[in-house]
Amino acid sequence: MITTTTHWPAPAKLNLFLYITGRRDNGYHDLQTLFQFVDHCDSLTITANDSSSITITPAIDGVKTEDNLIYRAADALRKAANIHAGANIHLDKVLPMGGGLGGGSSDAATTLIALNYLWQTHLSTDQLAEIGVKLGADVPVFVRGHSAFAEGIGEELRMVTPIEKWYLIAKPDVSIATADIFHHPDLTRNTQKKTLSALMASPYGNDCEKIVRSLHPKVDKALSWLIEYAPSRLTGTGACVFAEFDTQHAANATLNQLPDWLQGFVAQGINESPLLHTLRTYTKESQ
Asked: Could you tell me if 104 and 134 are in contact, meaning their C-beta atoms sit under 8 angstroms apart?
C-alpha cells in the first residue's frame, strides 16, 4: 500500500453530439454520443491507509457518506479486490453539479484509478470499467481516459480523436436531473443510427436539447445568446451549454462579453484525460 498523500484530477466531459436511437424494455436508452474531455477539473486529494475506513470531506448536505458516488466507487473496488483498506479523500469541487459535465462520474472514476494504484490492487482497466458502469453509464469513459464514440447505453466505447477545439462553457442558474429528461414523453427516441464516419462528417446535434430548452427558459436564453457568437449546443441533458471556437483568444473574447445573468469559463478540449498523465507520473516515481 502507498500511504503518501496524492492529488488527482477529475476532468469534465462534453457530449459533442448526442443522439437517442431507441428505448429498451428496462427503460434505458440506446445512444450514439461523442465524448471529449476538457481541461477543467475537480481535484481529489487522497491518502490511503489500513484503517478499513473511508472518509470523504467536505460532507454534502442531505447525502449520507455511503450514498456518495466517491464512497461507492471506493467500496466497490474494495469488494472487487477482496481487501479491507481505507482512505481519506478530500474533494475540491469545481465542476457544477447537475450541469451535464459528468462531474460525479468523473470523481468516481478518479477514485477507482487512484485507489487501484494506492491500494496496489492491480485490477485491469477493463475490470475498473466494469465496476464503473455499475456506478453510472458515463464512468467507464472516464476510467479509460480517452475521447470516445459511445453506443449502447454509453458503455460501448470506441476511441476517437476529434479536433481539440476551445470551448466557452456556460452554466445557467438551473440544475437538471438526467432522469427527468430521459423520462419525458416528448423526448426524441427514434433517431436513425449512423456510422461513425457519417456522424463525424455531419453537423453535430443533441436530441435532448429541444426538451431541455422547452422546460428550462434559462437554458433556452443561454443558448440563444451563445449561438450569436459560435456554434453552440447543450451537453448531455444540461444544464451546461457550450460554444466552440478555433482559438483560445476567440473563446476568451466571447467570455468577456458574457452577460451578468450567465456564469461561464473557457476550456480546451483534450483527447487524453489528465488523469492518465497523473497515474503515469505517480507510477514512474514509485518505480
From this structure: no
